[in-house]
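Below is how a single chain appears once it has passed through the pipeline. First comes the sequence as given, then the structure the pipeline wrote out for it. We keep one example in the README because the format questions we get most often are answered faster by looking than by reading.
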Amino acid sequence: MRESFLELDQGKIWHSVYGEEGLGTPILVIHGGPGFLSMPQVVSDLAENRPVYFYDQLGCGRSDRAPNTSYYTVDRYVEELAEVRRRLGLTSVYLMGFSWGTALACSYALRKGLTGIAGLILCGPYLSTARWDRDQRANIAGMPEATRKAIEQGEQSGDFGDGYQSAMMDYYTRHVCRLSPWPDFLQDAFGKLNPEVYNTMWGVSEFTIFGTLRDLDLVPSLKRLSAPVLLVCGDNDEADPRTVKEYQLAFPNARMAVVPGASHLHHIEQPDIFLLIIENFLEATDMRMK
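Resulting structure:
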């Protein structure tokens, strides 16, 4: 692994690469959040045949913080992704997004075009806030009564203290990561989530949404993205498989896989299945490009 910083106008952006000498079409990984950071675990195993690049978005992980929260917008993150790709010399590339990173990948492709994009890999996809909220409300309805009430009271009162936080973690252990206990690297990553970015763009939890992304809906535009697309989710994902099916049908050329016994972070819950799904897609897509 090699890591470095890119000096962009808005600040230093951290990036790393695994398998830099690989001959296959590179993958550029776009992390979730917003406000989270790159987690190379499992995904870096794809570097056996091709370079796999990671970067931390502005305000996230090891990258610089912005002067103020007005920098944390879809527009700026699209421009940042374009510049990161250009500076890394990724003329031909797979874009692999996780959660919020799938919206960023698709927003980038819609605004900048598909030139050089070999395919889109969308994991735990978030492409519509309305659909995301619908799925979280359905998930909450299936939670124990005490959990439901704590969430309802927090959202009604605006008090997101201990009761709400406890209910939130109950939800997360069902729909974000079902491993028990959470791996140390995952706990560390959540501890480093930047609330300034998350609260500005999203809200206070995965299901209480009041940030600037509240009206995002890319679904009507997905028909413009003709590149090969793979959508992956867990069977207990926050991104409900039925909604992911809606996304698949909105793309002209998409396939879908559901990982059993897994949730939003299905790649670390079921790594062998996840890697097999991704490698099969990459192999099939690479063959069509030859």
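The chain is about 40% helix and 15% strand.

See the next section for the split statistics.
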